[in-house]
Amino acid sequence: MRHWFVSGVAAALFLPAAALAEGQWSDGPRLQDPRSGLAAIEYEGRIYAAGGAGLTQPREEVEVLDLTLGEWRDTTALPAGLERFGLAAIGGRIYAAGGYAAREGVRPIADMWSFDPAAGIWAREPAMPGPKASFQLVAAHDRLFAIGGETGANETYVFDPEDQSWETLEAPEGIARRGAASVVADGLIYLIGGAREGAASTRVDVYDPEDDSWSQLTDLPTPRAGHAAAILNGRIHVFGGRGADLSQTLNDHLVYDIAGDRWDTAEGLPAPRTDASAAVIDGQIFLIGGGAGGGFFAPFTAVDETDIYSEAGE
After folding, report:
1. Within a domain: residue 12?
2. What pLDDT digit, counting tens, does each position of 251-284 carry?
3. pLDDT reported for residue 5
4. Sheet-wide strand order for 39-43
5. In this structure, what CATH number is given to the domain that contains residue 165?
6. pTM to 2 decimals?
7. What is the pLDDT of residues 214-233, one digit of tens each?
8. Around 162, how many Cα atoms within 13 Å sit in the side-chain half-sphere?
9. Which of 136, 144, 188, 239 lies most in the core, judged by the most C-beta atoms within 10 Å?
10. C-alpha distances in angstroms, 101 versus 232, 285, 286, 296?
């Protein structure tokens, strides 16, 4: 029997920026091509940035950042142009799933592929039980979890790489949010913000895969969707996104203290950014790509910037 629980939602604790030691932003290597709605992941000391919105259709390019070289370079392209898809690493492979594909137009897909970085080859994997886009694909407890997104249902899909099989789990009402962000900390999966019915949410959920249970944490101080998130030194960093009615692109930087269950602010972004991706390497957060505008305008406002955030004292 699958189960969940939803705890009462505490009032948001929003402390002044001075309550958190300020970090700093610096410029990183630029992507070879501007892209919004991309996915990025750190794997074995390198960052892979894949797909994203193109002017006419989703992109298939994959770039890899090796810090010893200090520049992005091309690696094997995705099997299909994809944007707003999931990217996660587990068992020595990088998995790409769902999203909007060049061949399918505006319809989400269920397809999945995996990449062997050593061989530089993509392989077809079992498709998800149903299509998803603007969702979160994360690795935890030796499995992949496809959560939220544009599906019209609250189902979570779970993939076991060893068995090569998917399982469908029920989730609480409201989990199917578009453009949420997700991180994994101490085996728990955090789902942050996102949009439903054309409005961004402040909701923060946490999922425990060990007992298949959900709960809600302190809300975001302000609603957002299309933001990026990363975890560093026990705190979750949330970058930009789009505001309540999805029309305003944000440049703020929120930080969630997991132990204290509270939100704070940190050094804002160099410029407004939405539909970017974030990855952590060598104790720094790399904010990659994205755009100054959302929705229809994303491909026309895409950037090639990589901004690097370092905490004070790092």
Report:
1. no
2. 999 999 999 999 999 999 999 999 999 999 999 9
3. 31
4. 39-43, 46-50, 62-66, 71-75
5. 2.120.10.80
6. 0.92
7. 999 999 999 999 999 999 99
8. 3
9. 239
10. 32, 28, 26, 16
